[in-house]
Amino acid sequence: MAKKKYIQLPKTYISYSQCQMWKNSKDRYIQLYFNNCDEFRLNNSGLEYGKIFADALEHENETGDLLTDAAMLLLPKYDTRDKQIDTEIKTKYGWIKVIGRPDMLNSITKAFRETKTGRVKWTANKAQKHPQMIFYAMLIYLAHGVALKEAYLDWIETEETPEGVKPTGKVETFHVTFTFQDILECIAMTSRVAKEIEIAWASHIPPPEEVF
After folding, report:
1. Please, which residues bridge with residue 165 across strands?
2. More confident residue, 211 or 150
3. How many CA atoms lie within 13 A of 207 on its CB side?
4. What CATH number did the domain enclosing 178 receive?
5. Which residues are CB-neighbours of 181 under 8 A, at least 6 positions away?
6. Which of 56, 91, 166, 191 is buried most deeply by CB count within 10 Å?
7. Dist CA 197 CA 9 (whole Å)
8. What is the DSSP string of 24-42?
9. Residue 69 structural domain
10. What total of structural domains would you count in the chain?
């Protein structure tokens, strides 16, 4: 049996965040993934709060903050939380390893929900166009053969307070729909990005090490 040929990537796999970073800023991707420069990672109080919220939601833990814990109680729940999906795409150039972690997944139907925190208002149109939703629908199709037609994005509004980032108490849910054509187009996009990264990675010359 012939050994699989894989597209060569700096992390060996492609993810949603890698796809978006490459499309939005190739220079930042190169600094972060080719040169391992961690200072190019985004970090702010809103992102830090989002990580705390996601971790508590995944493990069903109380945070000790009444507003945060109340916001989590308002969210619809599926039985699988933040579980990594590992799958592959077959292309004419080779196989691509693809990974992703939907916030919540129904282990039977494969329906999923994505949770967002933040001050910037989400709308139905913004949720519908959010590329992470179709990326996860693609993952589920590749891994489980289920072509989802819908999913949900839940937004917990937050605000800056003297005690740090806190939920305002406002929680909104947005219904997002997909077509099978959307899933196929996402497969094509992910394959194209992975091949572009491989080409750049093959010709990349790492910066010289500093001499002290």
Report:
1. 160
2. 150
3. 11
4. 3.90.320
5. none
6. 191
7. 7
8. H-HHHHIIIIIS--GGGS-
9. 16-202
10. 1
pTM: 0.87
Residue written as token pair 């099978």: 180
How much is the pLDDT for 162? 85
Task: Express each pLDDT in 84-140 by its tens digit.
Answer: 999 999 999 999 999 999 999 999 999 999 999 888 899 999 999 999 999 999 999
Reported as a pLDDT band with limits 50, 70 and 90, residue 40 is: low
Has residue 23 got a pLDDT over 80?
A: yes
HSE of 167 in the Cβ direction (CA atoms, 13 Å)? Answer: 22
CA contacts within 13 A on the Cβ side of 148: 26
φ, ψ (nearest 5 deg) of residue 208: -65, 145
- pLDDT reported for residue 45: 56
Q: Is residue 11 included in any domain, yes or no?
A: no
The C-alpha angle with vertex 14 and arms to 9 and 19, in degrees rounded to 5, equals 110
**DSSP secondary structure letters along 69-100:** HHHHHHS---SEES--EEEEEEETTEEEEEEE
Q: Within a 10 A sphere around the Cβ of 51, how many other Cβ atoms?
A: 11
Q: Which amino acid appears at position 202 of this protein?
A: A
